[in-house]
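Troubleshooting log. The previous structure file for this entry was overwritten by mistake, so regenerating from the original sequence record. Sequence copied from the archived sheet and checked twice against the printout by T.R.
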Amino acid sequence: MNIVCVESLGIQKARFETLRAHYAAQGHTFNYYLDRREDEATLVERMREADVVVVSNIKLPAAVLAQCPNLKYLSVAFTGLDHIDLAYCREHGIEVQNAAGYSTTAVSELAVGMMLDLLRNIVTLHELTRQGGGRGQFLGRELRGKTVGIVGTGAIGLATARLLAAFGAKVIAWSRTERPEAKALGITYIPLDDLLRRSDIVSLHVPLCDDTRGLIGERELALMQPTALLVNTARGPVCDIAAVAKALTEGRIAGAAFDVFEQEPPLPLDHLLLSSGRCLVTPHVAFATEESFAARADIVFGHVDQWLARTAAKA
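Regenerated output below.
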């Protein structure tokens, strides 16, 4: 089999060379690239002869996949799969496997960190202090005692809930699937509209699919309290970005934090969330820690090994 990793994945060259030797000992070829290129022409050039491809969140549309006639397996170094043309893969028998779980801790920690910043204005006060300012009449708010609505109780949503419980927050939840693990933590499931009305902070943790695209729009934002905060570390299109920007500008919610957008950063300087008042933004980094990247490499190449073993067993 010809195995290709089309980007660095944060892996050092020495580890890639160890992987090359590992696969060569099994009679496979392994090629890797230490840069990240997202243009279709480069992707096709790198993937054209591959049986197995390892990729993270680079978009792989049908136009690229159709030019890779040998492709049989995609090991995706990412949790979501909305950047892959899954319909094409199903139609052409290409197996796709994600790296669920590698960034659970990383994403949940950033979500809570964003909540703390919104409540205590850490970034704003940092800049004020560096400019010679003092506290003045500033008062922050505490996370303890706040009602936090978790939207989506998958692994990341539950990890966030556990952290919030340690801070003394009250957690309520809405999810398309109610999980016994959440109920065991004392989390109460309620309808989404009720969650939006009752929450001091709403934290989004749903995957992007037809059911969740635009889940938080103008109607939903209107249900939130004017003192409420919105945190999105899930997927950008889960929210109507224009509606969020309008709600912030008009003061109908007190603040928001976004790590994800309708496009991958860098964002255009005229992006609505950059000029809509109190909105903390980070360039899609919730998943990106040294620890998560190390775990991700173990998962994705472990998946490749398992697929190769299954394929050999069928031969």
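The first helix runs from residue 13 to 24. Archived copy saved in two places this time.
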